[in-house]
Amino acid sequence: MANTKSKKTAAKRPSSKAKAVATKSEKTVKAETAVGTISANAIAAKKGNPFKGFFERKCDKDENILTIFKNPKIWGAIAGEVIGTMLLMILMITLGVYQPLYVIIGMIAITMGVYALSGAHLNPAITVGMMATRRVSAIRGILYIVAQIVGAWLGLLIMSGFRGAGGDLVELPAITALQDSTIWKNIFVELLGTAIIGFFFCRAQSYRTPKGAFTYAAVIAGGIALAVLFSVVISTNYLGLSSNFALNPAVAIMEQIFPSVSDGFGELMGSVGVAALTYIIVPMLGATIGFFAADASKKLAGEE
């Protein structure tokens, strides 16, 4: 009889395993509640100040000139920027800005090919925008810019080889010399175009996942195509320019923006300074404006 009672009592008592499961479940519920409370508090804080943390660092805080080369992945990223910018230069030389559909297709292909390596900046202006919004470190940004210039030079070198091998020399693209009366028009076009590219590139970062490769590339390519279309229409129809823009400092340097002949050294240096301002400094400023505009919109929309 006593044995029967003890068995019934044991059956009623929960086992130690059941107790552990129950304890785990309680802890899970408490953790989820805590996370929910933290999220609710974070949302409430953002409602009070949507720009909180706007300038916080988004890249690896430990990455600097002493540590960056310890990770061999940096060499793959640099190679990606060289190859990608080389292909972009070839694309611009062969198709130019008057084939927007082909430019979109080509840009999607190039971006998807190298974005997993480096993020496919392919443009010093974009890299400066990424540095200004603290998405890449200063040393990585400098390495990318050097790689982009080298890549653009290789693209020009390859196309120059084809030009010489064809017998009949084909003119390579070159930006016509700036005129005093149209400098501000050129600056406006470069600023607007690169601001559009910077905005779209920043928005594309939300899709930078292995499964979002096509979306990432399509957003960037679409932004570049839109910037080129606007620049062509505004240049030719409204400002009376002959599409004298590049929207990419690395490409612009290869398209001979710097004059080599002048009446005097002072005048030559002045012309070089104006060209650098128009096709290098202004595009970097424009892309940075586009990045900050995208980030501000993201913060105001409460997007995570």
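Second entry:
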Amino acid sequence: MKRFLLRRLLLMVPTFFGITLVTFAFLHLAPGDPVSMSMGDAAIGQGAISREAIAHFRHTMGLDDPLPAQYAKWLWRIVRFDFGNGWRTGQPVTQLLAQSLPVTLLLSSIALFLSYAIAIPLGVHAAVKRDSPAEKLVTLLLFILYSLPVPFVAILIILLFGGGHFFNVLPIQGLHRDGFESLAWPARIGDLVWHLIAPVFCLTYGSLASLSRYMRGAMLDVIRQDYIRTARAKGLSERAVIFRHALRNSLLPLVTLLGLYLPFLVGGSVIVERIFGINGMGMLAFRAILERDYNVIMGVTTLTALLTMVGVLVSDLLYAIVDPRIRHA
């Protein structure tokens, strides 16, 4: 296990360099740059800003250096845990990330927990009660949920429950109301939960539908195995067969997906945060892309890349816990 862990950690180093290098290259090769966004394409094209001012601005930002030199400088800053400053706001990128990350972690971790907590029993029920009317109804509802786009559902919630045309029962902007700081702690928690309902639902329903289908398929494969028939032949109750013997081995696909879903905790959902006015990592990345704020984009990309690699590593390690037959040499 130690050799496996060390080998995987060493492989993460070139993977990290590859991800950041490709991202850095695409950012600088794409049309537009912070100079044109800050000074305005029209002002530059009409000559309202002198070439000397533009050259000075590019030199100040380090954009006049060759791309390899710019990437090397960025790597050197990362070694010192310095992501630079946001070129639009002038704030350190670490400060911007520290402000946005807790918001996205709150939303995404709740959505991820609810997805797994609901999808596992739904998948088990669908496999055990396959071809029953209840299973067919659940399958139909899950397919409907899976087919609905997030923007459509978010706008539908606003129209139906956010004061659009029918009911005004759910807040649809931000994570707290005005005067939140003056509320007592129980009232703060209640207000936060009330604001979380709509965005968390939009972040949950799609992954819930897909995870439950994966769980159903994995459970169906497991309960057809010989050792499950043997357990039933020994006289074990159906509950013991399903939850003691079949469930654990059917969790492997969901463990794999967990490693892929972990980056979602940082990236969040740009669409959901945009629609509901939530200043999380998704909104931060969206604004940075529009403003060509290279430092902020690279900061978000670095966090997402690291979490992706850690997530894959954690899922590999969890294999040995879920299935004792798997051992890492």
